[in-house]
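Section 5.1 Outputs to date
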Amino acid sequence: MATNVDRDLVADYLDRYGETQGVLPDRLESFGVQYREQGYLTREQLYEIAYESSTRSAYHVESNPEDRCRTVTANVLAVDDDFSKIQLLTGLSGFKAPTASCVLTALDPSTHAVVDTRVWATLDRFDYLDGRKESFDAADYVAMIEPIREIAAETGFSPAEVGYALFAYDDEHREGTLH
């Protein structure tokens, strides 16, 4: 049985998110506007999103052909299933599930959240998930987004906001190193 993550906890840690090294929500929002207007993302736009998520591995995005970036991100818009969306994006070089979650959150913060080790750890700490995890695939995204959406529905925050709050919670409470 999961421990209740309440509205006050989400509000408190959402306020603290700006003090972390997490992805900047305003930047993702601007990419989302471009994505919805264009119907796809370019390689340059994907690089910028990847750079927001992981500066060390963003350069891998540059090895993707431009037309593949546009096609894959256009196809994501045509798919309803979360697993399939993440699977499509992780087919691009430089995209693992956490970086792919940035693309989905940019596209629709009312449905998606940026996820990573910190978010998983907080969900584990509150008994929504079980065990520590360091790398993620599409199935792990689905495992994380389900309780994030539950928390969002219970608290009135968007899934994106809940994700940011969970990240900030781990940033403050983690003992030891991240990896």
